[in-house]
Amino acid sequence: MKKTGYFIGLLITLSVSAQDKTAIKFAKTITAADLESHLSVLASDEYEGRETGEKGQKMAAGYIAKHFEKLGFEAPVDGSYLQKFDLVQSQIGKVYLQKEGEEKIGFKDFLYYSKAETMGEEYIKVVMASRKSDKKLFKDAYVVFVSEEFEDFRAFIEEAKEADAKGFMMILQDDEAYESLLSRVGPYFQRPGMGVRDNEAAKLIVGNADLAGWMFGKPLGEIEEGATTYLVFNADYLDKPVSTENVLGFLRGSEKPEEVLVITSHYDHIGVIDGEINNGADDDGSGTVTVLEIAEAFAEASKKNKGPKRSILFMTVTGEEKGLLGSKYYTDADPIFPLEHTVANLNIDMVGRIDPAHEENPEYIYLIGSDKLSTALHHLSERMNKTYTHLELDYTYNDENDPNRFYYRSDHYNFAKNNVPIIFYFNGTHPDYHRPTDTIEKIAFQIMEKRARLIFHTAWEIANRGERIKVDKVEVRGE
Predict the structure, then answer these.
(1) Which domains, ranges and CATH numbers included, belong to the chain?
(2) In which element (H, E) is residue 161 found?
(3) Is the preceding omega at residue 20 within 30 degrees of 0, hence cis?
(4) What is the block-wise mean pLDDT of the chain (479 residues), using blocks of 10 residues?
(5) Any residues with CB less than 8 A from the CB of 293 and at least 6 apart, and which?
(6) Considering the entire predicted model, what is its pTM?
(7) What is the C-alpha separation between 100 and 214, in angstroms, rounded?
(8) Cα separation, 410 vs 117, whole angstroms
């Protein structure tokens, strides 16, 4: 028995060693030179910052699709690599409130924001409320709540929505806080935005004590809970349809093809602003070309009959900068492969730079979300790094109390909210974030190569291990 056990152990050791060597062999096909070659195209001026729906984004989609075709991947969207869908580009027009012939102007006397479609003037009921108010008061009304500062009232808003409230008004008691918000946020709300019209979306008006006094005809401090007034409200939108597309390449697994690992990045950026091209070399050209290189490594393995046991979907998405729209379309509207068969998502968003916190030790990567849904995925990720790449895995932004809330701010979250285990790979922010200075000459390609190889090894292990990654935690939404 002892000899038999010894030989079985030896065979297992040899098998694992052979698997390690195979993974290392194909990881080495991911090179700094190839990453730079792809990025020199996608982050060039010719691609005009890859703004969603614009010429440069279409060019980038074509480049990525041709790469997937060259690798021999299946085109999973009815024979195409492009998952097309429509968005709406809109710009706020005339916004006003009227009472007894007097008018208050939007973005001068108050702020307004909504993704809901509006149809000209409407006569609205406005009710002063508190968190303890009788929810029966909220039905078909704009609910007013008072705050010292611009707080997060999502929970209260959801309660009011459930009571069939029509809209919401936040009154800021601090005039200085209100004026700051008006000057800082007002221009942003008035810029053209992009998304999908949602008539279930909340309508939010933000004003100050003067607006409340005007609406109810008495000073804010004298307005009783349950007080009601009636106004005319108007918010016009100038809408333009925009077509865009995610780019998908599919490598079918040899043994468990129905189980799918999804590897993502977003290939859109913010385009041309004030005549300056925002090339987005790091955000997220770096993630996109990392996906292309990992895809090529797996394609090479497949050609040598060493392809993954599970299937892998390589997906570069559009519209991330507009609100994670491309990944949301995939998960919420058209998951080409059922989410219940999606074993994990590895999302790569900004992996080409070194942030100020790591200038002395650039061999690092921030990991976010690896332990949120699956203990097994977190341990696997740690083991892959210890075995192959020896980077510093920095979990600073994985903290539940991190004020940046990065866990909710990239495409992995649309998978996580559906309880698909995820890892988000990130290099941290830098002064060039969302600026024309995010250019290719600032990319650290050697460290980017090492980060890409870590992601490849993690993907290799997920795709080839005996059991699929188990979910042992449940996502609690924090959007």
Answers:
(1) 24-74+252-464 (3.40.630.10), 90-240 (3.50.30)
(2) helix 154-162
(3) no
(4) 48 54 96 98 98 98 98 98 94 93 96 79 93 82 83 67 86 91 86 77 89 97 95 90 97 98 98 96 98 98 97 98 96 98 98 97 98 98 97 97 94 98 98 97 98 98 97 68
(5) 29, 30, 31, 34, 35, 38, 452
(6) 0.82
(7) 11
(8) 26
